[in-house]
Amino acid sequence: MKSIKPVYILIPIFIFRIFFALNVNLIDDEAYHWSWSKHLMLSYYDHPGMIAWLNWITTRIFGDTIFAIRLPSFIFYSLSLLVYWKLAKELFDEKVAFWGAMLFLWTPFWGFGGYVNSPEPVFVFCWLLASWIFWQGVRDDNKRWSLKKTWIFLGLVMGAGLNSKFIMAMLAFGFGFFLLSDKEYRKMLLSKWPWIGFLIATVLCIPIFVWNINFDWPGFKYQFHDRHTGESFSLMRWLTWFVTQFLFYSPGVYLLMMLSFFYSLFHFKNKKIRFLFLLALPSYLIFYIQPFFADYKPHWSGTASFFVSLIAGYLFYNGFKIKKNQILRPNNKVIKNITIGFLLIVNLFIYLPFIYPFYPKIFRTFSHNKEWNPRYDLSNEFFGWETAGKELRKIQRQFHSEIGNKPFLAAIRYETTAQTIWGTKAEEEIFMLNTFVSHYTVIQSKYHTLDKFLGSNAVVLTTDKYPDNPLEHAKFDSCQKQEFKYYREDELSRVFYFWKCYNFQGITKS
Question: What total number of domains does the chain contain?
């Protein structure tokens, strides 16, 4: 295989990514993260503050536009790919770097996630950059960095990563596992520099601690306890989680990744294999076991899989030794065809519905007697909110003229609240009426925000995705529902419900 420069891969693919990102609306979590930047804080309930801080900068420069909101993610996703390429090339060669880049760009886990305004692209950049820096401090050649340089830079990058996502801490355990695995590197732990690096990272996390202390530790309780408990043992839940891994990486790649994980156990003396294996191990130990006992998010182990994917790429091109003089090489053509074919089909089914909503027509062709549910088409999640925001303001004005007092605007659930804020372009504050805990309810509870609306009327927005009745969550004298259907082309995309509610008397349901 001839040498392939990253620029030859990046330019055409990123032209497509730019076009796509600028022509598709925000999904729920994107709107949620953007809304944080309207009230800048040291940290937030769901995640630390990095994504909000970056959104605050870009939207101050370019306004509350799709371009400005997605710009940080696009920049850091691009930088992540370059660092990933460099790490793979230094550990192995350019062929493995090419393998990793293609997976990075086209697997649903990594490729599609790189579009959205979320903590992940910044976190992934810090995760990969920290891994590359750590490698510079433990490599065997004359390019090895000094302890001082390695750990000062690691402290800075780890601190930035922790201000993006708490999962960054898993990488620190991976560093520890690797250092403990070798007599030479164990000596590093006796030096002051790893601990200085740890101190630097801790100091950079002061905003997280200050915010959590001020609000009675809600972020820590949620991230380190609540979302990891509360469910009984379930083999079916784990199998469901396993299937998501199998599909989102593609069957051929994921099977090779699993083989690579076990291959690493038997080739532990290979320093490069051990490096990647041990950096992935802490996340795998936690997130591959959690679905047995608690709810999960499919992408939690995604950054650890970066490392295992590189081992898979190495095996793909070089094979592995079975006996002393026997090398087993994977059938590259079969694996390549399975991988490319699967990813091509999956990506077509991901991207084409954004151009035209063809899923309902396929469904009706094979299911004549069943009704199509718009929620089956993920692309519908990205459409309709700006239209709904205009309709909400229109209904608010009508309601105002009917009753003589301006009603406040509200929604149920954080997803709907966030999208309502986006749809109305945050012209006035939107409040969340139920007590399902989110950043909105934490802030509202801390400052007793809703008390000023006692006795007021409200217009409350819900959707067919979360068709809550406001009377199930808050006390009003009565509520009247008005339905609004949003279409894409000739297909129903989403149904919005606008509730005119009279005499707000507080939240009633937890």
Answer: 2
